[in-house]
Amino acid sequence: MHSIRIDPAKCTSCQMCVKVCWEDVIRWDEGAGKPIAMYPEDCVVCGLCEVLCPAGAIEVIPDWQSKRWPRELSRAPNAATIIPS
Ligand code: SF4
Ligand code: SF4
Q1: Ligand 1, residues 36, 51, 53: which to mutate, most atoms within 8 A of Cβ?
Q2: What pLDDT score does 23 carry?
Q3: Which residues have C-beta within 8 Å of that of residue 14, sequence separation ≥ 6?
Q4: CA dihedral defined by 9, 15, 19, 23, rounded to 10 degrees?
């Protein structure tokens, strides 16, 4: 399973990661006032949360054995035809 590490010490609670995660992996923890990677099994390793976090508080660690993207795409028989060169 992919891992989404959020460093609470760096996080400024801007909620950007919650807004940009289109797979709803990252949710807002009202009690802690911080984001939480609630459903890492749904992460598709798009990297948006990591790239757009203004505090550099997120690290997405892919699990290359995961059944979800990008492993499936790399194994597609016609991968060369669907990956733009
Ligand atoms: S985008 Fe970064 S700084 Fe903003 S809430 Fe998420 S982890 Fe915290
Ligand atoms: S890498 Fe993409 S899918 Fe995974 S938690 Fe971040 S924004 Fe969501």
Answers
A1: 53
A2: 93
A3: 54, 55
A4: 30
Indicate which atom in ligand 2 lies nearest the CA of residue 45. Answer: 1
61 beta partners: 3
CA angle 41, 56, 7 (to 5 degrees): 60
Which of the ligands is closest to the CA of residue 13?
Answer: 1
Residue with the nearest Cα to atom 8 of ligand 1?
11
Query: How much is the pLDDT for 1?
Result: 86
Fold of 3-82: Alpha-Beta Plaits (3.30.70)
> Which residue shows structure tokens 């460093």?
7
Question: pLDDT means per 10 residues in the chain (85 residues)?
Answer: 95 97 96 96 93 97 73 54 50
Q: Quick one: pLDDT at residue 76?
A: 53
Whether 25 contacts 40, CB under 8 Å = yes
